[in-house]
Amino acid sequence: MPRDDVKGDGGPVTMATVAARAGVSRQTVSNAINTPELLRPETLARVNATIRELGYRPHRAARSLRTRSSRLIGYAVRPVAAAAPTPVLDRFLHALTESLDDAGYRVLLFPSPGGEEETGTYAELLREDTVDAFVLTNTVVGDRRQSWLHERGVPFVAFGRAWGTRDAGDWVDVDGAHGTTAAVDHLVARGHRHIAFLGWPEGSGVGDDRARGWREALERHGLTPEGLRARADGSIEAATDAAHRLLDDTPATAVVAASDSLAMGCYRALDVRGEPPARLAVVGFDDAPFAPLLRPSLTTLRQPLEFLGRECVRLLLQRIGEPDAPDRHALVAPELVVRDSSPAPPTD
């Protein structure tokens, strides 16, 4: 008996495979399966013939979404290293849960190691008709989850862009480049001309986006970014080492950090060196709970997590109600919160 995992030309037969062979869109294939009355007879006949030829079987859970509802939304929880806390996702999950509760849904949390193994968990939940849809987080370059769900017609929304993945689906994201641009503009207005960037290793979609905003803002102000970028993983220890290098090797008087955790590395480096906090202006990103408690209190970019949670729920409910609608995206600017860590550069 044909199955959804029957191999086509180099891979499983999916809705996208049928669409390509029949010369129609994925939406047309979906209509042929779910609402055939919307199609012209000749188009419907061609799609159905292709479905039979390839042995395609729509995923049972996706096919039945129109007629059943568990009122549960799946959300994968990944392990978090103690050295790299992610309070943003904790706060986002709380905002998401509240918004879904208002809409009559609950969140089903399940553990996942991430990567390709996560799609196996999705497949199991769908086979068991456990959830109606998914919310994705931690999107990365080359992430296959969006395409996997999109090809199977499973409703989902991602908190984070697809970063070049084909068939991206619906997503809501924070405009990191806009945020670091605002940070540079703020520091330039304070009189800084040597503004460094402390970010994650190259290849991170989020990190590269935030670095891009910093670089383009410097160039717009006629300042050079050359030699003023350092990279570290998410740990405060690695950030401290990177901040030491910036202070040793560059004339930087200010640093824009890709996260508040990385910004803390700058504080630690100054403390170890016995230099005063005013030696280096620091701007973080995320407005973590500890940001206003630091001394000096941290200037940072605040993500509007309550709004982001509501936007994710809004797009997800629209997708559940309109499975064949065009993809929807929302890119939201963060807010610069100015505190004490970004003074003017010291004068000789």
Structural description of this entry:
Helices cover 42% and strands 14% of the residues. The protein has 3 domains: 15-58, 434 Repressor (Amino-terminal Domain); 69-173 and 305-332, Rossmann fold (3-Layer(aba) Sandwich); 176-303, Rossmann fold, CATH 3.40.50.2300. It has helices at residues 15-22, 26-34, 41-54, 60-63, 87-102, 116-127, 145-151, 176-189, 205-220, 236-249, 260-273, 305-321, and strands at 72-77, 106-111, 133-136, 156-159, 170-174, 195-199, 229-231, 254-257, 281-283, 300-302, 329-332, 335-337. It is elongated and about 80 Å long. The model is unreliable at 1-8 (pLDDT under 50). It contains 12 helices and 12 strands. With 348 residues, the protein is of the alpha/beta class. It starts with 14 loop residues before the first helix and ends in an 11-residue tail after the last strand. Helix 7 (145-151) links the parallel strand 3 (133-136) and strand 4. The longest helix has 17 residues, at 305-321. The protein has a 6-stranded parallel sheet, with helices on both faces. A 4-stranded parallel sheet has the order 7-6-8-9, with helices on both faces. Keywords: DNA-binding, Transcription, Transcription regulation. GO terms for molecular function: DNA binding. This is LacI family DNA-binding transcriptional regulator.
